[in-house]
Amino acid sequence: MEKTSNFRRPQAELKTKSDLGLMRRAGQLAAQVLTELKPHVQAGVTTKELDRIAEKFIRKNGGVPTFIGYRGYPATLCVSINEEVVHGIPGGRKLEQGNLVSIDVAATVDGFVGDTATTYVVGDYPSAKAKRLVEVTKASLLKAIDAMRPGNRLGDVSFAVQEFVEKNGFGVVRDFVGHGIGRKMHEEPPVPNYGQPGTGIKLETGLVLAIEPMVTEGHWQVKVLSDGWTVVTADGLLASHEEHTVALTENGPEILTTV
Questions:
Q1: Would you tell me how many other CB atoms lie within 10 Å of the CB of residue 59?
Q2: Is residue 242 a contact partner of residue 141, using CB atoms and an 8 Å limit?
Q3: Which terminus has fewer CB within 10 Å in the chain: N or C?
């Protein structure tokens, strides 16, 4: 995810079939990391332990952890807990029962990047609303992917997230957005999770986007903590994050971050 203000212009580099073949490898590896981590998301495990597992897995399977060193970021994963929306830095914090744990990971393989994220719960959900928050976030991503069709516009993808999330009573983060992706993790265009249908660039075959709803239990406003990275909800309520790298092909949208 990226700050809205860091994008320059709504353009995109369309990927070739050869590019997409390489991006499938990167996407699959990133997705495999989340599968590898799932049984370790348990009470008592530190976020740093999760990070070590992820880095070892990526390197063992021929990839490079994309996040390490990106603008000085120190880890393989972003691990964001409860009110943390994104960019949580792994460390000595131990997971606890009822935590919502959003894990974001990117892997670079043969010069291309795959980027994905999901939200886990440690044990049982702390409330019915927390469970619904995670469910709605996951469903909103699928709504956005379904809207990624030739002839549609980027605003249709953004609106699909906003309409579904807000209809279900949750908030959509505005200060951070999804992004184009390919040889670099963050490429044009920005992919907001809010917007107007029928606006923005026209969607064309070869476009690859990292679509990532960031959804809040309460108000959509967020703030960045003193570490300069961790983004939290301004009201202290829960947040959830889901992401897939998605290519628009001749056959429609294809999720590249699948196992």
A1: 13
A2: yes
A3: C
Sequence letter at residue 258: T
For residues 200 and 155, is the Cβ–Cβ distance under 8 A?
Answer: yes
d(CA 213, CA 203): 19
Topology given in CATH for the domain delimited by 2-255? Creatine Amidinohydrolase (3.90.230)
Phi, psi of 18 (to 5 degrees): -65, -45
Of 82, 67, 80, nearest to 30 by C-alpha is: 67
Please calculate the CA angle 139-101-80 and round it to the nearest 5 degrees.
105
- CA-nearest of 66, 54, 78, 56 to 23 is 66
Q: Report the pLDDT value the prediction gives residue 32, as an integer from 0 to 100.
A: 98
| Tokens at 103, concatenated | 């894990």
Tokens of 168: 């279900």
- The span from the CA of 219 to the CA of 125, in Å, is 20
Could you give the CA distance from residue 135 to residue 114 in angstroms, rounded to a whole number? 23
Contact 247, 207 (CB under 8 A): yes
Q: Which residue has the tokens 């807000």?
A: 166
Residue-level pLDDT at 8: 53
First to last CA, the chain: 21
Q: What is the pLDDT of residues 139-164, one digit of tens each?
A: 999 999 999 999 999 999 999 999 99
Question: What are residue 22's phi and psi, to 5 degrees?
Answer: -70, -35
CB of 80 closer than 8 Å to CB of 90: no
Strand 222-224 relative to strand 176-180: parallel, antiparallel, unpaired? Answer: unpaired
**Helix, strand, coil percent values for the chain (each to nearest 5):** 30, 30, 40
Residue ranges, the chain, pLDDT below 70: 1-10
pTM: 0.95
